[in-house]
Design brief:
Blueprint lengths: L1 E5 L5 H10 L4 E5 L10 H6 L7 E3 L5 E3 L1 H11 L10 H27 L11 H22 L12 H15 L6 H12 L1 H9 L5
Parallel strand pairs: 1-2
Antiparallel strand pairs: 1-3, 3-4
The protein binds glutathione.
Glutathione binds next to helix 4.
Protein name: Glutathione S-transferase
Organism: Marinobacterium lutimaris
GO molecular function: transferase activity
């Protein structure tokens, strides 16, 4: 059985959705980021980067990084149809997913959630957070130009939608308004049974 290392409401929510979409069998190890579980000796022995999401495969191998886990789930559960079989369409899906993870998450929201990691010492954390908000707004505006006016990001539901969902969810909870096209994608995702199940399991009321 897979072991999924996660924290409710973090970026792992996107992987959680994909695990449910695949109907994968998995057990959960909760990682308390606030108390620093990710820095414990036992966690670092598995993943020296100290990051989640992390998946322990049936073989005992450890897989990290959102995009790698999402692609592995898609390729190893083809019946869930989480990525196109056509090379260019699949690459477009990875392109969107990478933008959500590398830009919106790592460059924008990370400045809001962990501003101290972007400056030396304890100087001006508020301006780092403000820059994070500015980047979130700018990135969603760019995304709005790429998303279709309705439906999922790449036609059928895909791994890109799960990545977009977790950053949209963060924006919603941070009172950052989403452009109309992005908002309608978020609302579509909120109707999806697996998304609703995951949010309830992670302790959110719908
Ligand atoms: N880019 C990596 C990192 C993701 C990441 O930053 N995850 C956060 C939680 S949302 C984390 O592990 N935080 C722990 C820490 O940085 O100490 C990925 O896509 O998996």
């Amino acid at each position: 059985m897979l072991t999924f290392y996660m924290t409710p409401g973090s970026c792992t929510t996107g992987v959680h959705i994909l695990l449910e979409e695949c109907e994968a069998l998995f057990s959960v190890e909760l990682v308390n980021l606030m108390t620093g579980d990710q820095n414990s000796e036992s966690f670092r022995a598995l993943n020296p980067k100290g990051s989640i999401p992390m998946l322990k495969l049936d073989s005992g191998e450890i897989l990290t990084e959102f995009e790698a886990i999402a692609c592995w789930l898609a390729w190893s559960h083809p019946r869930a149809r989480l990525i196109s079989e056509k090379p260019l369409a699949a690459a477009r899906t990875v392109e969107l997913m990478a933008y959500a993870v590398n830009n919106l998450h790592m460059q924008a929201f990370a400045r809001i959630f962990t501003p101290e990691r972007f400056v030396a010492g304890s100087s001006d954390l508020e301006s780092v957070k403000a820059e994070g908000r500015r980047r979130v707004v700018e990135a969603f505006d760019l995304l709005a130009l790429q998303l279709p006016g309705s439906g999922y990001a790449c036609g059928d539901f895909s791994i890109a939608d799960a990545a977009l969902f977790y950053v949209e969810f963060w924006a919603d909870r941070s009172d950052i308004p989403l452009p109309a096209v992005v908002r309608s994608h978020f609302e579509l995702m909120l109707q999806r049974p697996c998304v609703r199940q995951v949010l309830m399991e992670e302790g959110y009321r719908l």
